[in-house]
Amino acid sequence: MGIEGPFWRAIAVYRVASLVYAAVLLAQNRGYEHPAAGWTVIGVMTLWTAGTAWAYAVPALRRWPLLGLDLLITLGCLLASPYVEGARQSEPGTLPVPATWIAGPVLAWAVHGGRRAGAVAAAAVAGGDLWLRLRAPGVPLQVNGAVLLFLAGVVVGHVARLARQAEERMQRAVEMEAAQRERERLARDIHDSVLQVLALVQRRGQRLGGEAAELGRLAGEQEAALRQLVAGPAAGGHPSGLTDLRSPLLRLAGPGVTVSTPATPVLLTAEAAREVTAAVKAALDNVRAHCGEGARAWVLAEEGEEEGKSVVTVSVRDDGPGMPAGRLAEARAEGRLGVAESIRGRIARLGGHATVTAVPGQGTEIELTLPTRP
């Protein structure tokens, strides 16, 4: 992935710098007891440094065979130190011939495989380093190098894994944004053409009656389906785990029912979206039961603020005969709890409220308001 490129370049720079450091140490110590062998090790390190700088720059070559070979060559150079240094290996402060170059494969394993892979490579290299120190008589055992190798492997692996995850999330966000822009563009074009034609066919068919009414009904169903298609992803399909209220509401559209929703998702918990949809269904059932066959209903969902809190408001309005004052109280007294429980009760349990406005001869409007985080 693109985010890994800087990590591999940094490892290449580290290898070159540590190679120069190892060569300087060998020169300062005049090649130890076996200069030819020492410079041969430096030559192998030089060739492998150049090879890995090229190989790790090619994403297709960043595989476990190359990483395993990298670790083996590094261990070979490390374990050649006793022969090169001879008796001088026991002198205080003497480093192995590769010196800090041995951390190269640890960093490579960490970038490629994460924390665990970095720790495994660190264990292998640190084991070789500790074995050399145990073989040196009279030299106190020092574990500083092993500890630093483990820290480098774990920390670099963790950072590399976080960087990959951040890149993946960024890529998903870019794709979602592009998809949303395209969806909004299609929604505008469809709304300006197809949806308006379908709505016109539905209205004209209802007025003409007969076979034209059936054609209008079919046009209304296709309009509702098309509105749902361009509205966005299905309910529950959001990374946040929330549900887009628009999808279940748009499924309620049909002949005589028009549903309008915002262009952006209206996100609620799954339970809240389910209860709001059920309340709207109950309201539409009341329209069909009490307002007659020709009555129309309009459902409008929107987001806003109420008393400084973010809320979602869904209103259901019809063009029926309305209700006389006190009708809801009479229905409750008669044990008919459709509005009281199916609508008001559901919204109240979510921490919201429902208001009913009815004017005789002018229809009824039910407004459901609830917080976005019930």
Write the layout of secondary structure elements.
Blueprint: H1 5-28, H2 35-55, H3 64-79, H4 81-85, H5 104-113, H6 115-135, H7 144-208, H8 211-231, E1 243-244, H9 246-250, E2 257-260, E3 267-268, H10 270-290, E4 297-306, E5 309-318, H11 327-333, H12 338-349, E6 353-358, E7 364-371
Parallel strand pairs: 2-4
Antiparallel strand pairs: 1-3, 4-5, 5-7, 6-7
Helix pairs in contact: 1-2, 1-5, 2-3, 3-5, 3-6, 5-6, 5-7, 6-7, 7-8, 10-12
Domain DUF5931: 1-168
Transmembrane segments: 12-30, 36-57, 64-84, 141-163
Coiled coil: 163-196
Beta-strand segment tally? 7
* Silhouette: elongated
- Please give the count of helices: 12
- How many strands, which pairing sense, and closed or not: the largest β-sheet? 5 strands, mixed
What portion of residues is helical?
55-70%
Strand order of the largest sheet: 2-4-5-7-6
Mean pLDDT: 83
The H-and-E topology, N to C, reads as HHHHHHHHEHEEHEEHHEE
Residue windows where pLDDT falls under 50 for at least 5 positions:
none
Strand content: 5-15%
Quickly count the domains.
2
Spatial extent as radius of gyration: 36 Å
What class would the helix/strand composition place it in? alpha+beta
**Distance between termini?**
40 Å
Protein name: DUF5931 domain-containing protein
InterPro entries: DUF5931, HATPase_C_sf, HATPase_dom, Sensor_HK_TwoCompSys, Sig_transdc_His_kin_sub3_dim/P
Transmembrane segments: 12-30, 36-57, 64-84, 141-163
Pfam families: DUF5931 (PF19354), HATPase_c (PF02518), HisKA_3 (PF07730)
